[in-house]
Amino acid sequence: MSSAIHTVGVIRGDGTGPEVAGEALKVLDTLEVESELVEFDLGAERYLRTGEALPDEELERLRTMDAVLLGAVGDPRVRPGILERDLLLRIRFELDQYVNLRPIVRYPGVETLVPSHGEDDVNMVVVRENSEGLYTGAGGFHRKGTPHEVAVQESINTRHGVERIVRYAFELAMRPGRRRKVTLVHKTNVLTYAGDLYGRVVDGVGVEFPDVERDYVHVDAACIYLLDEPSRFDVIVTDNMFGDIITDLGAMIQGGMGVAAGGNINPAGVSMFEPIGGTAPDHAGRGTINPLAAIGALQMLLAQLGETEAAAAVTAGIRFACSKLHSMRAGEMGFSTGEVGDLVVEGAAA
């Protein structure tokens, strides 16, 4: 147990977000971790009420947190792109959360769409560059709305940005429990500028880590390997767009969005952790959503704060809950949302 008191910002968000965040916080409350929770009123309701997605004063409050736990953000009443760009992406960019970290782990007893995979086959982590690439918003329209319209979306990749994400991947590969292998996933045969930069940086940084094996896989081939030979991967490093896509595929080979957690990491600043699925508005308020992804986000948050014993207890709790659930799918678990949280608490305390 750490003697520090951690200030944790909580954005419960929309749809099923408050429910899954609530279960994560229930688990946190049973652990020997000193924490102060700070609630943030951010999401669709705030936007619909005020027209603001992320007021500057709320962003400044977020900067003072030790970490942030996010439930989920999104609402059909809000035009797509507003909350994603003006809230989530703004937090990531403004707080320089340049690492999107996605563990892809198959827990025992979890059924997936690829039954031939075993627990040892699916155990990797994707390190996705989180601040550059196609998601910077660079580009524009020419002759918009006419038959001659042109839409340009630019991928921005800097040496600084690429080198720090690659270095993070190599350092991660050296941690206990990893197999000391880094695979760059890109499309160097077509994206010859950005891909070339990534390739050169991986080779250059890799020299500093002689004990780490280097590999390269085109992104389309990586999708095949994730299904056919996932054990090929230990640590994957990739750009923003490719990482966004392959982590959803990774979620499916670990059991679905119900167990898939992720972190937006600033190693020297404030990091934000979240389930990677959406708000699932059809399940809101019904007690049928799976909270394990949000609880997994809590596990990542605790690990980032140095609360290793508490993080290990949460992992044990998740594994215990997975062994009891009939399915990871919402409404098919055999337990309510709250009961799944109770199972995690039981397993964490064992």
Q: Can you tell me about this structure?
A:
- It is a single chain.
- The chain has helices at 17-29, 44-50, 56-63, 82-94, 159-173, 194-206, 219-228, 240-254, 292-304, 308-324, 337-349, and strands spanning 6-13, 35-39, 67-72, 99-105, 123-129, 139-142, 150-153, 181-186, 213-218, 235-238, 261-265, 271-275.
- It starts with 5 loop residues before the first strand and ends with a helix.
- Helix 1 packs across helix 9, helix 5 packs across helix 6 and helix 10 crosses helix 11.
- Helix 6 links the parallel strand 8 (181-186) and strand 9 (213-218).
- It contains eleven helices and twelve strands.
- It has 350 residues and is an alpha/beta fold.
- The model has no long low-confidence stretch (mean pLDDT 95).
- Strands 2-1-3-12-11-4-5-10-8-9 form a ten-stranded mixed sheet, with helices on both faces. Strands 6-7 form a two-stranded antiparallel ribbon.
